[in-house]
Amino acid sequence: MNIFEKFLNNISYKFPKGYPDLNNEQDILIIESELKELGIYLEESLESTIKDVTGKEKKLTKLQTFTDLAALTYAQYDLGDIKKVFPNPVNTIQGWRNYVDQKLSNKGREVENCIKNYSIENGVEAKEIPKGKGEDVIIGGKTTEIKSTQSNKINTQLQTSFYTNNPDKFYIFVSNTTSDNIDVRVVSSQLLYRAALGDEIVDEIESKKGQGSDILSQQLDDGLKTLNIKNFIMSSLLTGKTSEESKSFFIGKDNNVRVRFVIYVEPK
After folding, report:
1. What does the DSSP assignment read for 160-178?
2. pTM
């Protein structure tokens, strides 16, 4: 038995079949994660990996896609003490409301409060950021932004912030908040940033030291041409209703990002 066979034999209990199926993506990700713990990295372009995860040809649901993105995060990113709190790509907090402070005044922050207290319960220092934009709970020094939904779906609405190219920031996607138990998926912000915009755009942004991207600029120009902002505003003022004109367009890799315009009319 060679060294690699011994390595696989030692981690065989982690695989559903009792051994790694090299045709199974989840099994491959487990192997990569274990090798990373040993300081061994399998070189592969992030773009091709994301394409495998999010490719339309696979017809993945959003829930399946984010499950795969979470597994990829655990295989390729340093989560620090977040892994002590959430050791697996998909985790369940049973009786999650038991971790919410009884005297919590802002009921809209129950999930964030739960994540903070659950982290502390698992021996990891955590701090809640009540009014933070782009950050909700600091777990073991790592910034996390929490997106929750009542159903078994993924909330990807980003009203106050967008994914950042920051390897030390993570999104925590929480589902089933109307149930006693919630599911938690932790995904790298940097991975989401590249998955949304695409490697070509992100690499250009990095090469220009954050000064923009010609590809992205062209996408924005093309998108803005489809809008009629003046008519949009005029219709809102004259009818009290939103315009029938298009108020959004798509950018990024495979049009993964929707840019949406909302008009607020506020008397002085």
Report:
1. S----S-TTEEEEEEE-TT
2. 0.74
- Structure tokens, 125: 């220092």
Q: What is the pLDDT of residues 119-138, one digit of tens each?
A: 999 999 999 987 767 789 99
Dump the DSSP string for 54-87: H-GGG---HHHHHHHHHHHHHHHS--TTHHHH--
Task: Give the pairing type, strands 182-188 and 169-175.
Answer: antiparallel
**Nearest to residue 32, comparing CAs of 75, 70, 69?**
75
Q: Which residues pair with 91 in a beta bridge?
A: 184
CB 190, CB 95: distance < 8 Å:
no
DSSP state, residue 108 = G
Run of H or E including 3? helix 3-10
